[in-house]
Design brief:
Pathway: Amino-acid biosynthesis; L-tryptophan biosynthesis; L-tryptophan from chorismate: step 4/5. By secondary structure, the protein is α/β, with parallel strands linked by helices. It has one domain: Alpha-Beta Barrel (TIM Barrel), CATH 3.20.20.70. The protein contains 11 helices and 8 strands. The protein has an 8-stranded parallel barrel with strand order 1-2-3-4-5-6-7-8, surrounded by 7 helices.
Amino acid sequence: MNSETELAPAVASILEAARERAGDVDAQLAVDAQSLPDAIAGAEADGRVPVIAEVKPTSPTADGTRDDDPVELAQAMVDGGATAISVLTEPSHFGGSPEALTRVREAVDVPVLRKDFVVREDQLDVVKSDLLLLIVRFVDDLEALITATRERGFQPLVEVHDRAELETALEAGADIIGVNNRDLGRLEVDLETFESVAPHVPDDVTLIAESGISSPADVRRMREAGADALLVGSAIMDHSGGDSDVTENTRQLVDAGDGDD
């Protein structure tokens, strides 16, 4: 893991809370996961841009919170064409919960990602999901945690920010990799981050662009740079008055491949 002194204060606080959060030492989960690569292939066969739409009540970089039912939000996203759903389960800074993820996964027929800040094996056994986020910068023994994740049936989505972290992920055996365009040191977003890392990702790796994707033009830019799928939260959740807006926001992104803004 890289030096914590480089982390933005908000991110350092998230990491500290993650280290203190208890997992489950009594029972190891066994998950029958839906395949994200298969879902991506299905979306592309249907002519849709593969979008992982994120249910996010709040975040350190957002203003205010959303009190909507996470199940209704997720269903609205799927109605808009989302290939998969990401659900925040981090409680302290994002207002998420494992219970919300369970309810969402029971209600939708697409893969569901647990987005949290997992740093130890016992924290894997909190809730069932199809995918589980592992952030290279936060994990000390990535290979061991990837192995433990797969032993339970999860698909690990391994998040990187630069080429050095990409090499760490590849050496640890990651085959689904997300490139976060947000710098965890300054919390600034730059789509060139993905463009600089993507050329070095092997073709057999499922590659996801994360953060800062806010328009159809951004979608096309990331796809042209090699993204197999896009993880989008704020552009779908923000500035929406209800489920119909969430559906329409999602649809505009999944239809972005037609070239219309």
